[in-house]
Amino acid sequence: MGRRSRDSQGDGAGVKDKRPDTKLVHGGRRKEWRGRTVAPPVHRASTILFDSVAEMRAAAPRFGQYYYGLHGTPTHWALAEALTEMEPGAAGTMLYSSGLAAVTAALLSVLSAGDELLMTDSAYGPTRRFCDTFLKRYGVTTLYYDPLIGAGISELIGERTKAIFLESPGSLTMEVQDVPAICAAAKGKGIATLLDNTWATPLFFPALAAGIDLSILAGTKYIGGHADVMLGSVTANSDWYPTLERTSWDLGQSVSPDDAWLCSRGLRTMSVRLRQHEASALRIARWLETQPQVAAVLHPALPDCPGHEIWKRDFKGASGLFAFTLKGGGDSERTRFIEALELFGLGYSWGGYESLVVPADPERIRTATRWEAEGPLVRLQIGLEDSDDLIEDLAAALGAYRAAS
Ligand SMILES: Cc1ncc(COP(=O)(O)O)c(C=O)c1O
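A: This is the predicted complex of the input protein with pyridoxal-5'-phosphate.
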């Protein structure tokens, strides 16, 4: 291999036809952005200096062009381009300071006063809150729908419907949605489809290829992967990318280059991490199914999970987050179980290398559907610890639960 081809190694332009794992490693690593280092350095900037008034006047806030700090530096472009390359059919990616900021910017890009939004009843709580408070205040109504509605969404589409928001699997209760059927119902009607794809990432579910217009990731989870950074992204097709870009800059949205850099770093190893999360989570989910204290395990790759057949049809893998319900008992017994765990941290978020647990009560937030279960719900994020140690920890805590219930 001659010097010329060596110099172009990692040049983003060369990975379009490659397989997803290769794209994760090489995507966005253009030589013009990274120089002679493997990783693009952290470029911090507010002001960009121009050489002449003519150059300043000719400049525009466009992807990959120096303009003003808000519009990014090579550190941001490298991450955004790598994420765009992961989604066949994508025109571009915008970055945000959190996953929630990505959700809200995407919604504000596609909705105007007087519009109606169809929102899955299984959405992440703060997404719901944004609809019920902020969007309501600006004249957008939200109609919640059953996450398992599939093609039946057609019956809910009215004259004012301008967007359908999906999250698959759903937060806490893990329902897998029929994304292609819902997108087919929206197509040709001027209705935008938005998916919170944080659980699967484009590695396990390339969303735009399934018909989604705007795919949202909380990079805080698997992209960062180390529980030490907050970031969000929206990847859009050519119908929506220009509006997304304009809206995001009008809102003054940006992300610190240090955080973009951390997520670029995380992205390169996401595939191996996800496969380890997947293997351990599945093993633990199957083990939980056999435990007498467990009523049901809600893991998309297991038959008890609503929408499991759709997961089998559409997804290339499963990540490390799932839920289960305890048999009988109430909040105090669940608390005793959770507090008996030693290796599972008690805290919000997920997608890092460490295992986490949270108690969850979906019955308090659902409006379109009723959540009913034999006992209280527990959500687990399975980290990269040895799964034997995690099983031993869970077994001991289930023993404490039995003693309490
Ligand atoms: C499914 C889902 N979407 C979005 C978010 C928001 O991401 P962030 O915490 O980066 O704001 C979360 C956070 O837990 C989430 O679970």
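The pocket of pyridoxal-5'-phosphate is lined by residues 98-100, 103, 124, 167, 171, 196, 198, 218, 220, 230, 232, 349 (CB under 6 Å). DSSP finds 15 helices and twelve strands in the chain.
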